[in-house]
Amino acid sequence: MRHWLRSRTCFCVSGDGHPKESSPFINSSAATDAEKSQQYDGKNMALFEEEMDTSPMVSSLLSSLANYSNLPTGSKEHEEAENNEEGARPSKKPVKAPQLGTLMGVYLPCIQNIFGVILFLRMTWMVGIGGVFGSFIIVFMCCSTTMLTAISMSAIATNGVVPAGGSYYMISRSLGPEFGGAVGICFYLGTTFAGAMYILGCIEILLIYIIPQAAIFKIEGLEGPEAEAALLNNMRVYGTLVLSLMALVVFVGVKYVNKLALVFLACVILSILAVYAGVIKTALDPPVFPVCLLGNRTLLSKAYDVCAKVIEIDNETVTTKLWSSFCDSDSLNATCDDYFANNNVSEIQGIPGVTSGILAKNLFGNYLEKGVIVEKRGLPSDADPDSPTTSSNRYVLADITSFFTLLVGIYFPSVTGIMAGSNRSGDLRDAQKSIPIGTIAAITTTSTVYMSCVVLFGACIEGVVLRDKFGEGVNGNLVIGTLAWPSPWVIVIGSFFSTCGAGLQSLTGAPRLLQAISRDGIIPFLRVFGHGKANGEPTWALLLTASICEIGIIIASLDAVAPILSMFFLMCYMFVNLACALQTLLRTPNWRPRFKFYHWALSFLGMSLCLSLMFICSWYYAIVAMGIATCIYKYIEFCGAEKEWGDGIRGISLSAARFALMRLEEGPPHTKNWRPQILVLVSVDAEQNVEQPRLISLTNQLKAGKGLTIVGTSVQGTFLDNYTEAQRADQSLRKLMETEKVKGFSQVVISSNLRDGTSHLIQVGGLGGLKHNTVMVSWPRNWKQPEYHQQFRNFIETVRETTVASLALLVPKNIAAYPSNGERFTEGHIDVWWIVHDGGMLMLLPFLLRQHKVWRKCKMRIFTVAQMDDNSIQMKKDLIIFLYHLRIDAEVEVVEMHDGDISAYTYEKTLVMEQRSQILKQMHLTKNEMEREIQSITDSSRGSIRRKNPPGMRSQHSAEEGASLAEKPEDEVQLIHNKNASTPTSPTSPTSPAGPAGAAATWTDNKGADKGPALLSPGPEAGKDFFNMKPNQTDVRRMHTAMRLNEVITKKSKEAKLVLLNMPGPPKNRNNKTNPMDNAVYRDYPIFADIQVMIFLGFGCLLAFFRLYGFGGMVFNFLTATFAIQWAILVQGYFQFSHEGKIHLGVINLINAEFACAVVLISFGAVLGKTSPLQLLVMALLEVPVFAVTEWVVLKYLKINDAGGSILIHLFACYFGLGVTFVLYRPRLNEGHAKESTSYQSDILAVMGTLFLWVFWPSFNSALTLKGDDQHRAILHTFIGLSASTLTAFALSAMLNKNGKLTMADVQNVTLAGGVTVGASVDMMISPAVSYALGMMGCTACMLGYKYLSPFLARRFRIQDQCGIHNLHGLTGLISCAAGICAILLASEEVYGPSLYEIFTHRAPVEGDPKLQQLQMLIPGLQPGLGRSAKEQALFQVAAVFSTIGASALGGVLTGFVLKLPCFASPSDDLCFDDQLFFDVPPDYDSPLKLNDTSTTEDSAA
What Cα–Cα distance (Å) separates residue 1194 from each residue in 232, 1095, 1137, 1158, 1441? Predict the structure, then answer.
């Protein structure tokens, strides 16, 4: 649609984008141009003349709609055609408008089709077996199913006109031809088997109740299986005869069936009325139908003449016929059956009446096994359970094993037939009104009749009579007939004619349904059944229907046939409900049914009931029916004619596709699910034909119809001017994809230039999560020729773009020589040169190719390159094991490619390329001049290659052996490709020269290629002699590698059919500009700034907690920190960062120096307020070297893991400080000092220091961890540990305080314990719960240490720990070390994966270990380790702990003795903790203390 908006008027101009043959409003008759001109000449609609061919005038449209009629070809038309054939052919008569109303057109046909043989022959038996309660459930469930289906059907039928064919048309037009055909066939089979069921019912009534003497196979005198077989054979013979007669009647003329329809309907209605009349009569005068029982067993009526053992005749006791049946003679002393002798004979009334109360006894079921005697519950019976039953042929026996699901299957056909009204929609006056009302009214009527019959049968008839299926105990009468009034023959005759009529209607309707399916053409092999007589009568369809119906006749058992047709009808009804539900949920625009009382939930409930009933009836029949429907569905899908009926399946396909695409967007695919989703980039010629058709063939061989394939091309121009060319190109792509059997999508873009078009395809190809991950593009042809230079530049840009987009790139070379899909290689090899690991892509390609018939017989060879230091034998073993685990069968060969001397040719070629490139820069040539110079370079290079190559190394289509392309300086790039990519050996041409079939290259993002060729910039060297310059050694090595590798590949893979190798990726740095994030300042400076805040603000504020020593705490911290950092840079630089006699500085040096500074400041806390500034500087001067040496020894020789510094920082600083304070012991301070107290302001300042430390501690712990996941874990674990210790500190502080209040010392120190406790394991894979537990443990230890351990150390060990560093750093450091050791012991490759050897670098395999090579393929850059086990690493951790404590304590003691020298001016005991000694302080700096002393004195005086 195209819209213009002017003012407030909207004009809509329709385009030609919709297929006009599918529009219901287009007149299909074509008028000539003259007629059109006459039609519109002189009219005021000339503006729309061009639209008249496709869009009709509104006036003509309204006229055609008003006169619209739909009289489908059905039974009525056949009857009229036959009438026309009988007399003279009259002139064409106008078609009469449909006149049938709701009653005659829908209600009565549905009544006639629903009421059937089951009601008359099996309903009473069902009530007797299942009980009133169980039977009512069955009836209610089945009737509910049909009612829900009728609601759905009414919605569909009122959404337009439903032609003859009923449910088939509903489903096929709603769910598509596949579902429609499958369900239509099921509906047809159901209708056909319904005909068989009706015929069998008809024969059963005839042979059992009307003329038993007509049986061909006599049943008299037969027992058990023999009698059953005779009955079935009679059914088969008579059934076949009746079927033939009925088929003949239908063939002769359907008009006779239609004329008898009213008679059959009258029989049904009269029969049902007779039953109700009989029920009423039982309330007034129950009929006499005695039933004879022996004990509680029901006797056959033919087994006795009098219901007694003996009778009195003329005062003489005479035995009866019953006696003779059970005894060996007529004498009174004869030997009789034990059960006969022990039980009395009784006679009960078979129909006691509706007022007798028999309903209570018939409420519950009495399911019987086959051959079990029908017994009356509640009567006494004397039977020996161990003795076998004799004379069983004298009793009424159960003919089949009964159970609930069997009853459902047998009963359900009695509720079918609800489609009769919708099948006649063309004959209805107002179908959209009549179908819902008539169908629902008919179902309501029949459901009421069925439910009432269940209750009335149970209330009127004795249970043993109900369970007597064939009325053998009531003189062979039809059980329901015994209830009827005025005579049982009303029911017998009525049901006989009813079943005959129903059978005729089934044989009439089923062929027409098959004919409708056949004429739709969706099932090709059924098309023959769409033909018939001249009047359209479906002769062939009738023949097939009769043949299938004969199958049901051969089955011969009504109880066996009923579940079969139940399956087919249930499946049909299920899909009617599904069609309505889908149309409702999808909100299809044309879904506007006039029937409004429907809902998708009701449809789904009906569908669920249908599916449940299918499996309840018979699970194996349900599976067979579904299998038939599935086979038909698949047949139509693959072989049937394509139909587009605007069905709902397309709508649900769109919804499902949208849902699936949204799911794909939720996250990246797992490695196991990865497969190449290929975007094939092809080019088209001037006629829009594909220039590289073999690319599509290769795609088919790679994909084999799996996954996503997009074939794209670009057309140069503008969309308005070149849209037609784009359409032709798209058609060309589609045709080629169809020819090559590639399942995928075509995409054509129009762009101002081909380069941008290709870029657009790479960027926007696919939809949502269904995008390509691989791009296939052919190697550019004749790329060295000047006219193809732009083509090769486009290719280079494509390579760069795929690299940036992280897409795999497949580049087949000599694509025209690749085999087509019709060729076969009977032998040969696919060679894979596995030089660098590309994630498995190179291994996957030959595996995928060998799945295709073209490459199936080719063997796979894998070559890998070993250098001088590699163990070739071990590499081969490792590769074989690796391939075994990958389940790939391939030959393995390790090729040794030694470094050797760089050839003069390589040196010369590289030199010439660099000289020319530098000269071009200095000359500032124009673009054209530069291109000429570039061409001279490539020509010279090509000539040099030809001179250096021996003639035998070239093949018919040889290409350049090693290529370097010099373009504009910013686009300079080097590519390595296959040296000998010759024409493949055709499998059909043995005379073709042997050689590789081609070389397919996969680009990978290789670190070695990141640097790119060196770019020299003009400057001071402008006057340099470029022809005497030396080439860049990196470029020389690359060129040497390329030439040697090409030589090796040519030698080893000369006979291969295909050579696969991966190539280095293009340089990422196109303009030689450094990425700012690659600079250490951007990576490490934020962490450095965080640690700066901790050192100068955190420690400074925290150490200012004494009320009279605030200046000293903060300023001396400032002084000491500044000095320690500068001193540590030099000392640590000497041990760790010294190269070639120079210390290399960087941000990382500053971070390490600040760690050393933190060590000094922690130790400073032990002697806070008791030392002079000079002593502090000397302590820093001595402690930093001791720390640096200890750090160097531990890291270099013990090689431990200590990311958070728990060992080297916290333990060292703690015990060094304790050693110093041990020597500087002041006995007078043991009992405290007057100035050793805090104030309100000083505590606030100290808490600010705590907050600074708390906030930035995660940076402190994660500073030196590996960037990425390790650093992420360190931050998380530190924060969790700090949070745990903070919460625990507040809780313990209040608990341990006698007043239950918080202590500021606890808040200032103990809250930080968690940061220390997690330090040793901070980068390891410990759970958050462990981090939390460590935080709580550290806090508890620290809190108890402040309260109990610090006073104990001061009293007993002369250790006056002024700030409690032993509690915050020592105890927590020990806990942290223990946790780290446990984490190391538990660390395994199952938990960490290959990253285990990045975190625990010393556990990595040693140099030369095969496992190291496997790991280096997974983790490029992984360095060899020491091969330690977890236990060994843990022991080294323990050794590091003890050695660090020993070295720090010894260093602290020695430093203490140095600080004790008088020359360092240690303050006296009285002047400790006082700023007045070293600072000019304000006059009132000690006023809080004086005020406190005054208050204390006054209190004492008082």
Answer: 98, 24, 16, 18, 9
Residue 884 burial (CB < 10 Å; 0-12/13-18/19+)? exposed
**pLDDT confidence band for 1332 (50 / 70 / 90):** very high
Helix (H) and strand (E) counts for the chain? 52, 21
Q: How confident is the model at residue 960 (pLDDT cuts 50, 70, 90)?
A: very low
CB atoms inside a 10 Å sphere around CB 800: 18
Does residue 861 contact residue 890 with C-beta atoms inside 8 Å? yes
d(CA 1223, CA 276): 119
Handedness of CA 215, 217, 222, 224 (dihedral sign): negative
**Residue 890: DSSP 8-state:** -
Q: Given this model, what pLDDT does residue 434 score? A: 85
User: Under a CB-based contact definition with an 8 Å cutoff, are residues 780 and 815 in contact?
Assistant: no
DSSP label at residue 1326: -
Q: Which of 1225, 1128, 1241 is nearest to 1185 (CA)?
A: 1128
Tokens encoding 52: 């008249």
The token pair at 415 is 């509720």
Tell me if the bond preceding 486 is cis, omega within 30° of 0.
yes
Three-state SS at 1281:
helix
| HEC sequence for 506-566 | HHHHHHHHHHHHHHHCCCHHHHHHHCCCCCCCCHHHHHHHHHHHHHHHHHCCHHHHHHHHH
**d(C-alpha 1262, C-alpha 1259), whole Å:** 5
CA 566 to CA 572: how far, in whole Å?
A: 10
Angle separating helix axes 254-284 and 224-252, nearest 10 degrees = 130
Distance (Å, rounded) from C-alpha 1353 to C-alpha 1214? 14
Q: Please give the Cα distance from 115 to 265 (Å, whole number).
A: 9
The position carrying tokens 């005839």 is 206
Least confident of 266-280, 524-538, 708-722: 524-538
User: Is residue 1285 over pLDDT 50?
Assistant: yes
Mean pLDDT across the stretch 99-127? 85
Distance CA 234, CA 767 (A): 67
- Per-residue HEC secondary structure of 1222-1245 comes to HHCCCHHHCCCCCCCCCCHHHHHH
Taking alpha carbons only, the member of 999, 1015, 998, 1011 closest to residue 1065 is 1011
* Pairwise pLDDT comparison (836 vs 1314), residue with the higher score: 1314
For 1003, the enclosing helix (H) or strand (E) is strand 999-1004
105: DSSP letter:
I
Question: By three-state DSSP, how is residue 28 classified?
Answer: coil
Over the Cα atoms of the chain, what is R_g?
Answer: 50
Cα 1175 to chain center, whole Å? Answer: 70
3-state class (DSSP) for residue 1468: coil
Phi first, then psi: give them for residue 383, nearest 5 degrees: -135, 140
Whole-number Cα distances in Å, 712 to 402, 527, 760, 777, 794: 65, 40, 10, 10, 15
Q: Tell me the three-class secondary structure of 317-357, residue by residue.
A: EEECHHHHHHECCCCCCCCECHHHHHCCEEEEECCCCCCCC
* Sequence-distant (≥ 6) Cβ neighbours of residue 1209 within 8 angstroms: 1155, 1158, 1159, 1162, 1319
* Mean predicted confidence (pLDDT) in 1299-1317: 87
Helix/strand/coil (H/E/C) assignment for every residue in 59-86: HHHHHHHHCCCCCCCCHHHHHHHHHHHH
The rounded distance, in Å, linking the Cα atoms of 1056 and 1052 is: 9
Question: Would the pLDDT of 515 be above 80?
Answer: yes
Q: What's the token pair of residue 1432? A: 């060994």
What is the rounded CA–CA span in Å between residue 605 and residue 1196? 75
Report strand pairing: 999-1004 vs 2-6: unpaired
Per-residue model confidence as pLDDT tens digits over 712-732: 998 988 988 888 888 999 988
**DSSP tag of 692:** -
11/380 Cα distance (integer angstroms): 92
